[in-house]
Amino acid sequence: MLDIRFIRENVDLVKASLEKRGTKLNLDELLSADEERRRILTQLDDLRRQKNEANDAITKLLKEKKDPQGTIAAMKDVAGRIDACESSLRQKEEALSRMLLVIPNVVHESIPAGDASQNLVVRQWGERKVFDFQPRTHMELSEYLDMIDFARGAKLSGSNFILFKGLGARLERALINFMLDLHTSRHGYKEMWPPALVNRASMTGTGQLPKLEDDMYRLKDEDLFLIPTAEVPVTNIHRDEVLEESSLPVYYTAYTPCFRREAGSYGKDTKGLVRVHQFDKVELVKFVKPQGSFDELEKLVGNAETVLQALGLPYRVLMLASGDISFAATKCYDLEAYAPGMDKWLEVSSCSNFGDFQARRANIRFRNKETKKLEYVHTLNGSGVAMARTVIALIENHQQKDGSILIPEILRPYMGGLEKIERP
User: In terms of domains, do 146 and 27 share one?
Assistant: First the structure.
């Protein structure tokens, strides 16, 4: 959430950011509501002053044994006007809060303007593998090797739900354990295991609500949501808390299943594992001091890159343009792994700096040890990394001519020493 004072003092900047995002919002309506709120607040302060003066006058009259009825009547009138003002103020503040919740974060000046076509490739790692045979897709390979059952996944739950089985299930588990071990032992993250259901306050805190409610799975009888990413529960661990500056930065990592309705995916590629409703992900979340948050973003991207390098997957890092960046982010990098069977670059990680946008919504602050004042932390998160597209890239890049899949060396201890997945 943007601070209303920040918007008031930086109207041109916020309007320019909205334009860069391609977002149409009536900022003048928001500013008008804020002006009316401040007018009522001024009026309320004046009425409270009058009430206090009347109280003092009544006390003085009673001490002097004089009739205070006229002053009491005047005070009752003022009290009634105070009640009316307080009610009006609550309504204005609620309306203003609703408006602020739908205003996206201000995009960072360094990111390119435009839609997804303007995303900037900042670096690339690894060579796209050249095969001496026609590479198969992950769908063909997983069926041939009996690793994934797409038909039974759909039978169990519906389209775009997946059933991993046998060595496919073990590969999924191996990837999760490898990534958690890497991030905790080498990158300094503390492992968490959060709930997969969260309340509305948590979803609002990280920015999924109210904007993205149609993309979320919500329980019918309770106001609880299946998490779209571990970012939601992990960021909200410190909702409504004050952290000590000495504790920052705080790094958390968590594995969770993730659930997304993909309500806007009609017409997009939904084959195989590309776009599924439930997938596994290892998430990285940071709480940091404002001064170093963009340096922390670069480190976060590097942590995710380490995973792909260890798995031997060629990838590229994109800086997202203003029209492709998420609602809550100020700057974001996507990591895309190359899938040779599909001949496509697939997003496997998205690493974002939110500045104090989420912290304001979730009320996460720290106490500055020099000024003793409370300040909002900056939050960051990134996939470290996400399946199922990482599985696509792994299967398709490490396939052999006979249809088997060579297991990356880093994963072999997690696969019981197995070097290759072969047809049963």
Answer: no
Across the chain, what does the average pLDDT equal?
95
pLDDT at 265: 54
Predicted local distance difference test score (pLDDT) of residue 76: 86
Beta pairing partners, 399: 405
Domain end position, chosen among 41, 71, 101:
101
Looking at residue 263, its pLDDT comes to 60
Residue span of the structural domain in which 29 resides: 4-101
Whether 83 and 144 map to the same domain: the answer is no
Q: Give 271 or 332, the one with higher predicted confidence.
A: 332
Residue 241's identity, in one-letter code, is E
pLDDT tens digits, 339-348: 999 999 999 9
Query: Do 197 and 230 have their domain in common?
Result: yes
User: Are the C-beta atoms of residues 148 and 162 closer than 8 Å to each other?
Assistant: yes
Say what the pTM is.
0.93
